[in-house]
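Fill in residues.
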């Protein structure tokens, strides 16, 4: 990581303009769920593709559960997402119908995610001059 690195929560729009999500994104209706919750586009495309190729609920969970906080947007933006979510669920993706069901579905997921390795604490970022950087590198 870099000292000036910043986290971003905005996904690339390409995730919303390809795959299954493109059908909704390119709709003339600007009041659609992917526009309210663009962070769901990547996981939804991946979950749909995984389910279509495997018919596996576990495959969908492996994609949706790590992104659960992003996916919960569909319930928090219910006015814009209810129709979309009902339509998506009708495709037999076995997605939850509520935030409570989503949390229940993913309750055990964290136990299957490997624990990150324990190592030394990250070094503190220190600003140095270019002259000092050249001196250290020499």
């Amino acid at each position: 990581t870099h000292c000036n690195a910043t986290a971003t929560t905005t996904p690339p729009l390409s995730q919303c303009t390809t795959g299954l999500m493109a059908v909704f994104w390119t709709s003339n209706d600007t009041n659609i769920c992917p526009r309210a919750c663009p962070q769901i586009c990547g996981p939804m495309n991946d979950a749909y593709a995984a389910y279509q190729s495997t018919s596996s609920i576990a495959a969908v969970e492996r994609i949706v559960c790590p992104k659960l906080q992003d996916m919960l947007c569909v319930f928090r933006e219910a006015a814009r997402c209810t129709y979309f979510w009902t339509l998506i669920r009708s495709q037999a993706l076995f997605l939850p119908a509520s935030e409570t069901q989503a949390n229940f579905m993913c309750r055990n997921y964290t136990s299957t995610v490997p624990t990150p390795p324990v190592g030394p604490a990250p070094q503190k970022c220190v600003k140095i001059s270019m002259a000092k950087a050249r001196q250290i590198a020499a």
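Residues 41-54 form the longest helix (14 residues).
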